[in-house]
Amino acid sequence: MIIVKIGGGEGININGIIADLSGLDKRFVIVHGANALRDKLAQDLGQPKQVLTSVKGYTSVYSDERLLDVMMMAYAGLRNKRIVELCHGHGINAVGLSGLDGKIVQGRRNKGIRVYQGKKLKIVRDFSGKPQAVNTGLLQLLLDNGYVPVLTVPIIDEQNAAINTENDDVVRVLQQALPAEMVIS
After folding, report:
1. pLDDT tens for each residue of 17-42
2. Is the dihedral of CA 162, 164, 170, 173 positive or negative?
3. Who's near 79: CB < 8 A, 6+ residues apart?
4. Cβ(156)–Cβ(103) under 8 Å?
5. DSSP run (H or E) holding 59
6. Which side of the chain, N or C, has fewer Cβ within a 10 Å radius?
7. 100-126: string of b/e by CB count within 10 Å (b at 16+)?
8. What pTM value is reported for the model?
9. Which residues contact 84 (CB under 8 A, 6 or more apart)?
């Protein structure tokens, strides 16, 4: 089992990656991003992303409900379906899914991000979190029947709501759940 992570930045040769994957003789799962597409779409819609910096210096994209809508359009919509289309064009029987579908990736929502706004310390809550578990039954069902899952965010939280997360964390829980012998990034 191989997990293939495709980033979401500008200029990634997705067609070349999928062409290379068509020659694999092992089962694999694709996890992909779409951050450049998300940022452009958010800008075009007049909803530019906001970046928060925690008191410890970590940065993250503030994931409010509006950004989740843009994410769903960019990640689970356009990018996911274009990758599935490319897969089929290269003879890979792919099925596109977000972590919401079939609760394929379940997580826990963050309790909040501690940030300074001016000189005040605040806790900002949003729709983001960390993946905790994978619906391995559904993944195995797909894999055992010749499908290549093409996964992306959002994932589902403990209250059955969509949340944003990092694809590196999704890959980590997938690698533990499947278990994968290799991650290609």
Report:
1. 999 999 999 999 999 999 999 999 99
2. negative
3. 8, 32, 33, 34, 37, 152
4. yes
5. strand 59-61
6. C
7. bbeebbbbbbbeebebeeeeeeeebeb
8. 0.93
9. 94, 95, 96, 150
User: Quick one: average pLDDT of 142-168?
Assistant: 97
Domain boundaries, the chain: 2-184
Residue 98 CA: distances (Å) to CA of 31, 101, 134, 152, 165 = 10, 6, 12, 5, 12
pLDDT tens per residue, range 96-109: 999 999 999 999 99
Structure tokens at 14: 């997705």
Nearest to 22 by CA among 82, 73, 92, 70: 92
φ and ψ at residue 173, rounded to 5 degrees: -70, -35
The CATH class of the 2-184 domain is alpha beta
Burial-class residue 181 by CB neighbours within 10 Å (0-12, 13-18, 19+).
exposed
Runs of H (alpha helix) within 29-127: 35-44, 65-71, 80-89
Q: Largest Cα–Cα distance in the chain? A: 57
Distance CA 180, CA 173 (A): 10
> Is the pLDDT assigned to residue 58 strictly greater than 90?
no
Residue 126 has pLDDT above 90, yes or no: yes
**What does each C-alpha distance from 67 to 42, 52, 60, 135, 156 come to in angstroms?**
7, 14, 13, 25, 16
